[in-house]
Structure formats: structure tokens, C-alpha cells
Amino acid sequence: MLFNSFSFLLFFPFVTILYFIIPQRFKNLWLLISSYYFYMSWNPKYAILIAISTVITYISGLLIGRSKENTIRKKLWVFLSMTSNLAILFFFKYFDFFIENLNRVFAIVGIEMVSPAFDVILPVGISFYTFQALSYTMDVYRGDIYVEKNLLNYALFVSFFPQLVAGPIERSKNLLVQINRKHYFDYERVKAGLLLMLWGFFMKLVIADRVAVVVNTVYNDYQTYQGITLIIATLFFGVQIYCDFASYSVIAIGSAQVMGYKLMDNFKQPYFSKSIAEFWRRWHISLSTWFRDYLYIPLGGNRKGSLRKYFNVMLVFIVSGLWHGASWNFVIWGFLHGAFQVIGQITRPLKIFITDKLGINREAGSYKLGQIFITFCLANFAWVFFRASSFTEAKGIISRMISVWNPWVLTDGSLYTLGLSPKSFWAGIVAIVILIIVDITHYHGIGIRERFASQGLIFRWLVSLGLIYVIIIFGIYGPGYTESQFIYFQF
Q1: Predicted local distance difference test score (pLDDT) of residue 239
Q2: Model's pTM, two decimal places?
Q3: Which residue would you say has higher pLDDT here, 461 or 197?
Q4: How many domains would you assign to the chain?
Q5: 162 and 249, same structural domain?
Q6: Contact between residue 486 and residue 219 where contact means Cβ atoms under 8 Å apart
């Protein structure tokens, strides 16, 4: 079930209204049933995988708790929990990729292998709920969270429907604690949550799905295009993936808020970052902090010298790339982000020396704007590998992008042949400008929602109804008004 589907527009009000009506002792059971129904609307049989992951990590938590001071036994339960969950993830997501590359290696030495047939649809959200369940195991082992003995409550933690299939990847210290609290209807909280959801729908339907038309037109036939056209399509993909993924997180956070739950922020204006390291403190925060806490720091972090730190950074980002998909494109994408950070850290003393010698004020707005521009360009360059279907295609796109300088496409009407009419194209540009304005205000700590809530009732209703009208009129829908899938569902 997609957030942007008619099914969800019926499902969410029904679940929420009944949630606030039923007695407190049945609320978590109702949410658990609703969450499994939400997930099973894609493929009922894959709900078994969530149940298996839930049972494994639940039992491992109990066993770790009972081991008390027996460190060896605790590590054993952690190891078994990690390996069994990752084995399931590997089998469904990486098995074909592994066999394909193994065959290539053997082919080099003249050995033929027959690949076993394994043609199944990747379970939606398997990377997300697997990592969320594993974080509980690690938190219990570290003593950061109590052992949850109520299986129902723990199962709801793993499968909570607002963030089940595309995050944010919640921690037990945040979400599991809230599941054990009582939740009541609060008008102001519900209103704020619904308004947040409305903004998410604007980002998805008006911006992400609109610019996706241009991106798909160009990238699916990249050999027809060159120069500025490919650059614009790449920039549009940067907008698309930000609005697509951030919109899911915003809708998830808003829908959870309606029911009394507070999920972590997953995005904080990432394209205003002044370095790639800062970009990852603002982009997909729940994943980047997961890798920091459960991989980077256990590897030694920055505590064992510069070379080890650089190695840890590269390893984390290569794994992060592989987390996104079983393809060398994603590995290269992760490698680039790791390399950008390592190079940035190595050259930092040189940059400081040069700017000091030239008398450049590093606190000046123009200098920071330059940093933001460079970071934005690096991030969008890496997006080419993320969006392209193969490494060969990515190389071809980059080659055609830089081989021709054709600025006339900006004025000769060529942009209106990429799938959008002139009116629809400029509607997208206006929507992007609105997004930039909103992000700028958030970046400078201006609380738009708080200021909006302080306005008069008539003004609030007019703005809210106006936003609904804009989404309905300017939203992009498929044939027969079918919804488009969120990009990160494939991960």
C-alpha cells in the first residue's frame, strides 16, 4: 500500500479513528494488525519474513538479557541474531548478484558455472526493517535499552506501518519506549501531523513525480541527448530523489505524530551542506547514524589513527552503497561519497593554508555559498551512478554530458520535448522554488509550522485547503490516476 494511493486515503483515517476509540489495552494490538495488513497489501507471503526477523531478534534479546555478565554467551547470541537476519537479507537481495560475479571470476580462469534459478521479487522494505530489528539486538547487548518481554509490543516496533518500508530506521531507544506509553487524542498534535503529511504529498506528487517525467525520458534514452540536457536531467534527478524520499519520511513522521508517536527526522536540508560529510549528517540521517553507531564506531571510528579512520570511512560508504542495491553502480556511488570525504579531510590543512595566504574569510557568506555549490555538484555527479542502470551507461552519460556545450537548449524549446508541456514544466520550477524557500527557512531555524499554527483559524484553513487544491490540480498521476512507487521501496 502506497502513501499516495487511494487505498491509503481510506486505510489511514479508518485505522486512526478506531485507534483512538478502542480501549487503551487493545491499541497496540490494533496497530500491529494494521501494520501487517499494510505490508501484506504488497505480497502477503513476505510478511513471514518480518515475523521471522521479529522472532529471532526478540528471542536473542531475551537470551542476551538472561546471560547477564557472561560476555561470551552474550556475544554468541548477538552473532547468531546478526548472521541469521543478514543471511535472509543476503538470500533475497544479494544472492543473484553474488552468483553473477562469482561466475565472472570463474570465467576468467575458464571454469563454467551454472547459475541456480532464483527469480523472486525483492521483499519491500527488507533492508529497512532488518536494520531496525538488528539495532534492538545491539542496543540490548550494549545495555542501552531494556529487554522487551512483551512480544506484541516488540513486533509492533519492528513493523510499525508509517515507517515500515522506507524508514526512518528507528531505534529501540526511541520508538520501542513510546510503544509502551499510553496515547490519547490531541487536537493540536493531530492537526500538526496532518499538515506535515500534506507537505509530504506536495513534495511527492507535485515535485518528485513531475521532474521524474523528464529524468525518465532522458535517462531511458540517454544516447539521444547530450550536454546541457543531460545535466538538467541529472539535476532534476537530484531534486526527484530528495523530494521522493524526503516526502515518504515526512508523511511517515506526520502519520505517526497523528497517533502520538514521534519519529526521528530523516532529512535536514541536505543540499545546503558545505561538505559531503555534512551532507551525510543531513541526508538519510537514520541510515547514516545507524552505520556510524553499529559499524563505524565498532571498527574503531577515528580513534586508531588517520589511515584507519580513512579505511573505516571508505568501508562504511561502500557497504552503504551495497545496502542501497545489489549492483556495482551503487557500490561505486558509495565509494565516491567515501572518497569525497577522505579527500576533503586530507586536503583540509591545504585549503586552510591557501585561504589564509590569500586572505579569504572562511566565515564569509560568499565562501560558504561556494562550498555549498561544490558539495551540490559532487553529490549530483555521484547521482549519475545511482540513477544509471549500469556502469557502462553511467560512463556514457558522463561522456555525453561533458563532450558537448549546447546552452541553446535552454531557450529553443527543447526542454518542452522531454515529456512535460511548457505549463507543466514551469509549474515544476515554481514548486521547486517553493521547496527552496521552505528549506531556507528551516535551515535558518525558522519554524514555519509553529508560525503557521499561531495564525488565525480562517487563514490556516485557507492555506491548508489551498495546498490540497494545488496537490489535486498540479499533482502528477499515471494512467487512470494510478500512484507511482517511492524510489526507496526497491531497497
Answers
A1: 96
A2: 0.91
A3: 197
A4: 2
A5: no
A6: no
Print the domain residue range for 100. 27-182
Determine, yes or no, domain membership for 11: no
From CA 159, how far away is CA 161, in angstroms rounded? 6
DSSP structural state of residue 363: T
Q: Is 183 a catalytic residue?
A: no
- pLDDT band, residue 432 (cuts 50/70/90): very high
**Four-residue CA torsion sign, 404, 406, 410, 412:** negative
Which pLDDT score, from 0 to 100, does residue 481 have? 47
CA distance between the termini of the chain? 16
For 237-268, give the DSSP string.
Answer: HHHHHHHHHHHHHHHHHHHHHHTT--PPP--S
Look at residues 126, 156, 182 and tell me which one is the last residue of a structural domain. 182
Cell numbers at residue 177, please? 519506549
Helix (H) or strand (E) holding 97: helix 95-108
What is the chain's length? Answer: 491
Residues 409 and 474 in one domain: yes
C-alpha R_g of the chain:
24
Grid cell digits, residue 60: 536473542
Say if residue 347 is in the same domain as residue 469.
yes
- What's the average model confidence in pLDDT over 380-396? 93
Residue type, 240: Q
Span 246-276, pLDDT tens digits: 999 999 999 999 999 999 999 999 999 999 9
130-179 pLDDT per residue, tens: 999 999 999 999 989 989 999 999 999 999 999 998 879 999 999 999 99
**CA proximity to 128, closest of 160, 83, 150:** 160
Of 182, 217, 250, the residue that ends a domain is 182
Residue 4 lies in a domain: no
Q: What type of residue sits at position 94? A: Y
Percent of the chain scored above 90 by pLDDT?
65
Which of 183, 284, 324, 444 is an active site residue?
A: 324
